[in-house]
Write a structure and sequence with these properties.
- Helix 5 crosses helix 6 and helix 8 packs parallel to helix 9.
- The chain has 10 helices and 8 strands.
- It is of the alpha/beta class and about 325 residues long.
- Helix 7 links the parallel strand 4 and strand 5.
- It is globular.
- Strands 2-1-3-8-7-4-5-6 form an 8-stranded parallel β-sheet, sandwiched between helices.
- The protein binds zinc ion.
- The site of zinc ion has 6 residues, from loops.
Length: about 325
């Protein structure tokens, strides 16, 4: 088992985006990789190559009708996949399949012992539902990864932790009644920000009641506010004792993002990543995958994601 962090890199991942002037541009991948390279990690990281998901992989989470619709609209290459946030770019089907496939490659690498900790920068597309696109997200790589971990490896109790400014509604509602999907999400209060969901009262349904933790944060929340809320996430995860951690570390919760109103610094991301690695070492044989998620201020995403990789590398 290598202690180095496996970071995924490649033009296939960079091709997921919507071009200028959409906030989710094609440049986000390279901006991060450049920052990571200049941080000089040397032997602490290794690089993995993207891989394309098959339709059978997508079907683990998504409906056949939805996959067909994306395929058709991607060939037409015009209009939107949703109400106006997620353009039907030419080739978006392949690009979105590359994001999912790369997540599954990361799962395989962690489960076969190639590495304990992996990071996929262009991934964490947490708004896509089982049968719909939403909020710049076409296929939900996280949802597919959960189902893949269960089917291929028999890993049941998976913790999903999300510090993106937006609520991870695609994951939340995809597993709302699933007691084995442990869900913790700190996000800007839905009264002020898309998608409007994730109130504290939403704790899961049926047998899953109490397995989901939603913490809405007020606009302007700082690192101090983050750390107070984060203590609840840690004790929630200590109680849940997951077998695997998926981390969505969207950088749009940092001050200066053009489309949100939270005011963390990248220290929040570094601290959250370090805490999750401690929990992963305690309960999950170290196994954790980080995904970039949102983040539309380029400097912020480059710094926040690099600090997450740094925390992964320092976790031992
Ligand atoms: Zn976001």
């Amino acid at each position: 088992m290598s202690d180095s962090v496996l970071v995924y890199k490649g033009s296939e991942l960079a091709s997921y985006g919507f071009g200028d002037p959409h906030p989710f541009g094609f440049d986000r991948h390279d901006v991060f990789q450049d920052e990571l390279e200049s941080a000089g990690f040397d032997g602490a990281i290794q690089y993995g190559k993207p891989r394309r998901a098959s339709v059978d992989d997508l079907l683990l989470f998504h409906t056949a009708d939805y996959i067909d619709m994306v395929s058709k609209k991607s060939s037409e290459g015009r209009g939107y996949l949703d109400d106006g946030d997620t353009p039907a770019m030419p080739g978006i089907f392949d690009a979105a399949s590359d994001v999912v496939g790369t997540m599954l490659a990361a799962v395989d690498a962690v489960m076969d012992g190639t590495t304990k900790r992996a990071f996929v920068p262009i991934a964490g597309l947490h708004h896509a539902g089982r049968d719909h696109a939403a909020g710049f997200c076409v296929f939900n790589d996280l949802g597919v990864a959960v189902e893949y971990l269960r089917k291929k490896y028999g890993v049941r109790r998976i913790a999903y932790v999300d510090i993106d400014a937006h609520h991870g509604d695609g994951v939340f509602y995809g597993f709302e009644d699933d007691p084995d999907l442990i869900f913790a999400d700190l996000h800007e209060d839905g009264r002020y920000l898309y998608p409007g969901t994730g109130s504290a009262e939403e704790t899961g349904t049926g047998k899953a009641k109490g397995t989901k933790l939603n913490i809405p944060m007020p606009p302007g929340a700082t690192d101090t506010d983050f750390h107070v809320a984060w203590r609840r996430v840690e004790s929630f995860l200590e109680d849940a004792k997951p077998e695997f951690i998926l981390f969505q570390c969207g950088a749009d919760s940092l001050e200066g993002d053009p489309i949100t109103h939270l005011c963390y610094t990248e220290q929040a991301h570094a601290d959250a990543a370090a805490a999750l690695c401690r929990l992963a070492n305690k309960y999950c044989d170290g196994r954790i995958i980080g995904t970039g998620g949102g983040g539309y201020n380029r400097k912020n995403l480059a710094r926040a994601w690099t600090r997450v990789v740094q925390s992964f590398a320092d976790a031992g």
